[in-house]
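Researcher: Quick one. two chains, 272 residues in total.
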Amino acid sequence: MTTHTSTVMDYQKKVSINRLGLWLFLVSDAFVFGGLLVARFYLLGGGSRPEVNQLVGLIVTLVLLASSFFMNRAETAAAYGDRKTFLNSTLITMLLGIIFLVGVVGVEWQIAPFGPGDGIVGSLFYTMTGFHAFHVLTGVIFLFIVYRNGRKDLYSSERHWPVEACAVYWHFVDVVWMFFYPALYLIGVAVL
Amino acid sequence: MEAKADDKLVIQKKEAFGRGVSVIILLLALTLGEFWIGSVASAWNVVGTILIAIAVIKTFLVVRDYMHIGRLFSDGEEEA
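Model:
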């Protein structure tokens, strides 16, 4: 019993160090996204935005928000040892992430009346959405690994750091979109 | 004694799930408000500032309740 308690305490100590490392990584990643956001306002100003479909923007944003909800549900379930809810919610999060990617890359990129080479607007729009979509893709891969390990019963209510790390990363990607969405779809008048 | 601990755990789990639901409802309401503001007006000064302020509020909610930033400042692993 004492050995078990000390092992759990060692694990928790490791988790708090890992947690700090993950947050430091996210802060450094946030600087890149922040740079892109500053570039958008510096180059386009607040009066203009890319000519994109606002409804598609709203739908993909709602999908990403819903995915964050299910990610939180998955993490909470893992923390309380509710394996079934954890697996189902992780799977739903992954599917919503894929739907988001299809919405941005498969729909928005195809219907946008400009390409990546069409001036500042095109460069900014495709760089910002592309860089963000790449993060969503890596998040989906991370989710798949967590789901697969979850099916193998590798996590418990005491030991589920990979689930927490995946959740924090996924929510970070959602937070980035919270700023990209108004910057690209809502602020200013549409220009080509 | 054990049954009491189990009951407490069930209540904690329910509360944690409930918190997740409250946050998503707020996030959805703010996003729809954002969309409405962005589609009815496009004057930079006011609208841009309001939309960025809404994004900051949404970020605060996610960082506090979904990313559990508070855990960074605690030694052990808290519950979800």
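Helices of chain B lie at 2-40, 44-66.
Researcher: Thanks, that's what I needed.
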